Amino acid sequence: MTDRPVRLAVDIGGTFVDAMELDTRTGEVRFRKASTTPAHPAEGVLNAIAALGTDLSEVELFIHGTTLGLNAVLERRGGNTGIITNEGFRDIFLIGRGNVPADHMYDFRYQRPESLVQRRFTAGVTGRLDYKGNVVEELDPGSVRAAARELVEVQGVTSIAICFLHSFLDPTHEREAARIIRAAYPDVSLSLSTDIVREYREYERTSTTVLEAYIRPIFERYVDELEAGLAAGGFAGRFLIMRSGGGSMTGAVAKTSPTHTVLSGPAGGIVGAAYLAGELGRDNLLTFDIGGTSLDACVIEKGSAVAAYEAQLEHFPLLIPTYDIRTIGAGGGSIAWLDRGLLKVGPQSAGAVPGPVCYGRGGTRPTVTDAAVVLGFVDPHRFLGGTMGLADEAARDAIRAQLAEPLGLSVPEAAAGIFDVLLARTVGAVRQITVERGHDPRVFSLLAFGGAGPLLAPLLAREMGIGEVLVPFAPSGFSAWGMLSADIVNDFSRTVMTTLDDADLAALEPLFKETEAEAVASLTAQGVPAGEGVLERQFELRYLGQEHSLMVTVGSTLDAAVVRRAFDELHHARYGHTMKNPLQILNLRVRGIGHTSRPALPVLPAGESAAEPRAHRDAYDFGTRAIVPFAVYDRDSLRAGDAFDGPALVDEGTSTTVVPSGQRVTVDAHGYLLITLGVRA
Length: 681
Fold this sequence. Notes:
Helices cover about 30% and strands about 25% of the residues. It is an alpha+beta fold. A hairpin with a 4-residue loop joins strand 32 and strand 33. It comes from Paractinoplanes rhizophilus. It holds the Pfam family Hydantoinase_A.
């Protein structure tokens, strides 16, 4: 047994920081929350750890999920960033693509958000490769020095993105430019596209590199500050940060690849859900994560989350591995407002500061959390286990003045309307990742987590005909729990761009070997013992003429017929049809995985008698659309096999599960709540 038996996971959300401790000796899990501190994010993390009372000297592993990079882009708080590219192509990033976001398709007043980099911060240099990676014009060191001098000395740039045409085929020019700039300006942060992603598409690759350069300075400072704070508390274990596409990486690697962390918070919940899918025997799960500022949903198919290799920050594309998560601006802190007499919810959020009206921190606009308090779902005297009282009358007054009276409704009707609008938006988001992609949501189980997930999930299940809702232990900290089961992962790729029929698959073997060598080196540098890493090979494929692609896992022996059959089966499962078009190989990919041990699921003793409610409280029942008495159960008092019908509330301090009439709760062997349609006859 290690002399440091504790694992610690911390997830920063828009409103709260969630900290979860696992004692590997006993399997005991403890969970606490602290307020997010946007001005000094590391402070909120350390506060959450202090609330747990964890002895950091006993912590073997600290794993962290953060939205710092994402927020830096959304709030325009990144480094002063410049771009160096080929002469004549300095406007690639500014021009971008001509597409308009779907929600602004018919908005003739739509304007793209302000660019991260102004034109005067971009420079072109002499030197050029052709589309096959051949040198057309040698790189001119003098033009590189001149470009760097202009950006650093004249424009005051502190971080530079270097991205040359077709450099994914040969990184030599980018590396030479970086060498020249480092010699002249060693304090300037440099981000090379070929160190981040070796794939085609110049704009997308440039965008990814710019975002990397923009985020890196503040991310490095944050990680350094957090590591120093942990060390001051006695921490001497491993420090890992979650990746957007699942798995984790060391803090040192994260500082050089911060774009891989932008969706790391939601990724923790997906990792945990994929683990549960196997442990609970649910091949198909829909994750349903509602936090303070956003709602995230993802499909788990046959125990694996659907993956994507391009994300979006505002209108900026990111070529990074990520989970295919549908996100909308709807969470507990989402503001309810009137737009020409129509009730809307979000995407604006009250955040952590000032927060919902009921927090009493200066918030004046009603939110989803305020509606939950008014409807009786949240006990204002027991919020966060009684550590934070809520101003329920202030919430009621805000809903009355700003929503109920203008709409001619009672206060409960207006509060219920907030949930109705939120539910409608949620159904649309879930349909996008299920029905619109060939999935029948009725064959899935809905895994509800996040502070507000269990509030809404039973209503969503009834609306969409989903037969089962699962509510894990401490759902508001489930993303942090999921991080405890994250492997160390890194992804590498090479662009191929040939048809499967024309490809010499044997000739691709050296390219796979080269990419695998990078993956092995990355795992070794992150402490994975030699020979213990697992390598997964994939082809990114599409029918010739298509835009979108699918990933097919391939073995060590490449067979074109086997690859074709696997792609056709996947395409049919995803889209309901196949085509006779030739297959085009876009990229080959290698994922390096260093497996870690998973926390075991607890097994609860069976209940000796039927569960008894702690109390009864009047609350709004969406089954009857009326205020009725709800039975209130303490989550800690429930035992395996306990069962009861709605209307009921299950309170566990940091979150409340709302079960309307017409639904039934059963407690499984692990203490998970299983909510199904229909009551006992």
